[in-house]
UniProtKB/TrEMBL annotation:
Cited Pfam families: NAD_binding_8 (PF13450)
Record organism: Haloechinothrix alba
Residue ranges of the TM segments: none
Lineage: Bacteria, Bacillati, Actinomycetota, Actinomycetes, Pseudonocardiales
InterPro entries named in the record: FAD/NAD-bd_sf (IPR036188)
Name under which the protein is recorded: Phytoene dehydrogenase-related protein
Length: 473
C-alpha cells in the first residue's frame, strides 16, 4: 500500500486526501492549527450560540462541485440551504437589482436589460454541469466540450468594464459589477470578468447555497469521509521543513507557493522556486461580524430576502474602489460583501438576534481599521443599522493570515487573479500541481481552478499523484 501525507487540512487538502484514499492510498493529513477547515471554519462569536463563518460563507461553486457531488457527504451531515434571493445589490434611493437562481426571474426584474441578461447566462447556465468539467480543470488542456467552453470563455477574457457596457441600466451594470468584484481585481484589466461570470453562471444552475450549521459542515463531512476510508488527521502539527515530514510516497501541499518553497528549499528545481517566490498576492479582506437585533433594516426589499448583499453603489464606484486598493490606498467607500446566511439557515440565529457577516476589500496588509467604513456602507443602504448592533467581532488582514497562513496579507483568494495566475496558477506549465520534485504536489487555491470550497484543486492534484504512483509501482 502506498502512503501519502497531506500538509494542510483545508477543503483542498481534505479533497486530495479523500481522492487518494478512495484508491487505496494510506493518507495522513497534517494540520498546523488546532482545527481543520482553513477558510471553511465556523464558530460562535459575540453572543453564545450565534454562528459565524470565518471566511467562506456562500458556496455557488461548491454546491455543484463535480467532486463533492461524487461523495456521500449527506451521510456525514452536509445539508445545503438556499434563501429566496441569491444576491441583492442596493443602489441609492431604495433601488436595487437582484440575482435569483432562475435566469428568467433575474431577467424579468432587469427591465430593458432582461433580454441581454438572458442571452448572457441562459444557455451557459443550462449547460453548466458539462461546462464545469472544463473550467474546473487547468485551462492548458484539451477541453471535453470545446464549443460550450468557447461560448462561455470568450466574454471572460474581456475586462469587466467592457462587459458592463453590454447593459444599459444602472441596476444591471451594478449587479454585474458586484459579481465581478469577487475577483478583487481591477475591472479595467483583461480577464477581470472570469470569476464573476463563473459564479453567476454556476449560481443560475445550482444557486448560491450555504451549508447548514456553518461552512465547517463541508470540511467536517470531508473529514468524516476520509476517516471512513481509513485516513487519519493530526492537528497542531506545523511542517516547517522536510525534516518535519514523515516518510511517504507522495506529499500534497495545501499551502501558498511561498510556504512550499520554505519547506522544500533547495530540493525544488531553480525555475520552480523562482516562480513560487514571484507568486503575487492580491488585496486583502477586513472582516467584521455583527450580532444584529431584528436583522439589517434594508431600504431595498430584495436585500431583506437575499443571502448575499453587495454594497458598492454603481459600477463606476465599484471599479474606482477596486482600483484604489490595488494602488495600496484605502477607498472612502470600499466594496463590502454582506452575508445573511441565517435567512437560509435559521439555526445560526439566537431568537431575534442574527449573525451578519461582512468584509471589505482593502489593500494587502492594510493596517488600519475598516470597521467604520463597513458600517457607513451598510447605513447608506439601511438607515438605522447602527442602532441594531448588539456586538461585533473584527478580523484584520493580519488576523486573517495568522488564522490561515495561505491568506498572505489578508488575501483570502490565495493569489492575485491576474491573467497569468488565473490561466496557469503558480507557474507557467501544463501541470500546475507538480512542484518539479517527484511525488510532491501543490493543491491549494493558488492552483486551478482557484478559490472556493469546491475541493477541485485538491482533487485535480491528487489525480496527478495517483498517476505518478501508478507509474512508480
Amino acid at each position: 500500500m502506498s502512503d501519502a501525507v497531506v500538509v494542510g487540512g483545508g477543503p483542498n487538502g481534505l479533497a486530495a486526501g479523500v481522492t487518494l484514499a478512495r484508491e487505496g492510498v494510506r493518507v495522513t493529513v497534517l494540520e498546523a492549527g488546532d482545527e481543520i477547515g482553513g477558510g471553511t471554519r465556523s464558530s460562535t462569536a459575540i453572543v453564545p450560540g450565534l454562528l459565524h463563518d470565518h471566511c467562506a460563507g456562500i458556496h455557488p461553486m461548491a454546491v455543484g462541485s463535480e467532486f463533492l457531488r461524487s461523495l456521500p457527504l449527506e451521510s456525514h451531515g452536509l445539508r445545503w440551504r438556499w434563501s429566496e434571493i441569491d444576491c441583492a445589490h442596493p443602489l441609492d434611493g431604495g433601488r436595487s437589482a437582484a440575482l435569483y437562481r432562475s435566469v428568467e426571474d433575474t431577467a424579468a426584474n432587469l427591465g430593458v436589460d432582461g433580454p441581454r441578461w438572458r442571452l448572457a447566462f441562459g444557455r451557459t447556465s443550462a449547460g453548466f454541469d458539462e461546462l464545469a468539467h472544463d473550467i474546473m480543470q487547468p485551462l492548458m488542456r484539451l477541453p471535453r466540450h470545446p464549443l460550450r467552453l468557447a461560448r462561455f470563455g470568450l466574454p471572460t477574457v474581456l475586462p469587466g468594464s467592457v462587459v458592463a457596457r453590454l447593459f444599459r441600466t444602472e441596476e444591471a451594470r451594478a449587479l454585474l459589477g458586484g459579481l465581478l468584484a469577487h475577483a478583487i481585481h481591477p475591472l479595467h484589466r483583461p480577464l477581470s470578468s472570469a470569476i464573476g461570470l463563473g459564479i453567476a453562471t454556476a449560481g443560475h444552475r445550482h444557486g448560491w447555497a450555504v451549508a447548514e450549521g456553518g461552512s465547517r459542515s463541508i470540511t467536517d463531512a470531508l473529514a468524516a469521509e476520509l476517516r471512513k476510508l481509513g485516513g487519519s488527521i493530526e492537528t497542531g502539527v506545523r511542517v516547517r521543513s522536510t525534516a518535519d515530514l514523515p516518510p511517504s510516497d507522495v506529499t500534497m501541499f495545501d499551502l501558498a507557493p511561498g510556504a512550499v518553497v520554505d519547506i522544500l528549499g533547495n530540493r525544488l528545481p531553480g525555475r520552480v522556486a523562482r516562480a513560487y517566490r514571484r507568486f503575487r498576492h492580491g488585496p486583502g479582506a477586513f472582516k467584521v461580524d455583527f450580532a444584529v437585533e431584528d436583522g439589517v433594516p434594508w431600504s431595498s426589499r430584495e436585500a431583506r430576502r437575499a443571502t448575499t448583499v453587495h454594497l458598492g453603489g454603481s459600477f463606476p464606484e465599484i471599479a474606482h474602489a477596486e482600483r484604489k486598493i490595488h494602488e495600496g490606498a484605502m477607498p472612502e467607500r470600499p466594496f463590502v460583501l454582506v452575508g445573511q446566511q441565517y435567512l437560509a439557515d435559521p439555526s445560526r440565529s439566537i431568537g431575534n438576534v442574527h449573525p451578519v457577516y461582512t468584509y471589505a476589500h482593502v489593500p494587502n496588509g492594510f493596517a488600519g481599521d475598516a470597521s467604520e467604513a463597513i458600517i457607513a456602507q451598510i447605513e447608506r443602504f439601511a438607515p438605522g443599522f447602527r442602532d441594531r448592533i448588539v456586538g461585533t467581532a473584527v478580523r484584520t488582514t493580519t488576523e486573517f493570515e495568522v488564522g490561515n497562513p495561505n491568506f498572505v496579507g489578508g488575501d483570502i483568494l490565495t493569489g492575485a487573479k491576474d491573467v497569468r495566475q488565473v490561466v496557469f496558477g503558480p507557474r507557467v506549465t501544463p501541470n500546475p500541481y507538480w512542484t518539479g520534485v517527484p511525488g510532491r504536489y501543490i493543491c491549494s487555491a493558488a492552483t486551478p481552478p482557484g478559490p472556493g470550497a469546491h475541493g477541485m484543486c485538491g482533487a485535480n492534484a491528487a489525480q496527478h499523484a495517483l498517476r505518478y504512483l501508478s507509474r512508480a509501482s
